[in-house]
Known about the structure:
Layout (H helix, E strand, L loop, with lengths): L7 H36 L4 H7 L2 H4 L22 E2 L7 E2 L7 H8 L12
Antiparallel strand pairs: 1-2
Amino acid sequence: MDLNTMSLAELRRLQTRISAEIQKRSDVERRSLLKQFRKMAQDKGLSFSELIATGDESTLNAPTARRGRKPGSAKTQKSPPRYFHPDNPEWNWSGHGRRPQWFIDWVTQDKPIEALERKN
């Protein structure tokens, strides 16, 4: 695969596929590690939740304050989707935040944004 011969839209689609594959593999790896940790805790006669709750001394004294908005604040409520992919309606975007790659590809092909809005 020669990246120099690919168009910008093709590169962005490839980037989306790579990001999805990285996320998928990360999830598989995380589940595998959790399974291994649960097995190790069980072999030692502990439950996994006991193991996590105990932690080591350095984590017991660590501050627990979180940054950002508090859960349930008005800003954390998800906006309803406004734009929908023409071939896969499960791909949608509220119009807020980072634009999804399929939306960017649509716009770069000079297609009208109005065509992505759901008609009631």
